[in-house]
Amino acid sequence: MNTPINFAHRGASAYCPENTMAAFARAVELGATGIETDIQRTKDGKLVCIHDDSLLRTAGLNRLVNDTDYEELSHLDAGSWFDPSFSGERVPTLDQLLQLAAQSELILNLELKNGVVLYPGMEAEVIAAVREAGLANRVVLSSFNHYSLALCKQLAPDIRTGILYMEGLFRPWEYAATLKADALHAYHYAVLPEWVHDAAEAGIVYHPFTVNEDREMVRLIEAGVAGIITDYPDRLNALLAERG
Q1: Nearest in space to 50 (alpha carbons), one of 66, 34, 38
Q2: Which of 32, 154, 178, 215 is most buried (CB neighbours < 10 A)?
Q3: Is 51 assigned a catalytic role?
């Protein structure tokens, strides 16, 4: 059985402010072999790593990322909301994360946050940045916007894509094949061993999210998933180490 990719969800987000360079670096220290992050675009076209459409929760500015120039965004404090010790952490750019990954063997799961706020052309821009960094073989592009994923595959057939969904898809590996997707990024309760097996028979793997309890991690490891997305990469790393 192959060892699942240990995807740190928004970095080591249980221990550091999510989607910051501190969270990404800590994830590596805790044994993550992959990093999951969210990609949005500033008003002036800079690709940045942030989950919410609004800057309010994590960076203190009540404005959409899409309506904010990068110069202003780059000075916002994206760490203090989590803990005062992280004061001064910034919203990182995609390029900063790509540089970190290029210095390691990390696999990146880049979620395109283009469901509520649409970012025309984002797919091509992310793909270009990934290619420029030489990481096309170490990236999975995911999204809840499946039209976006279909476009990604049209633009870059060699770059893996993962379909994000919550529950209720019937034979999702067959649906994934219609998009030429490589992976199913399902909410972890929507993953059963027989589905993992049937998907694998069709050449589709599972990367369930967001898995934080040891028992659920073990269940999914035993089911044969190819990756697990977690806020606690150290917990998953310890369980994988126990299993050899």
Answers
A1: 38
A2: 32
A3: yes
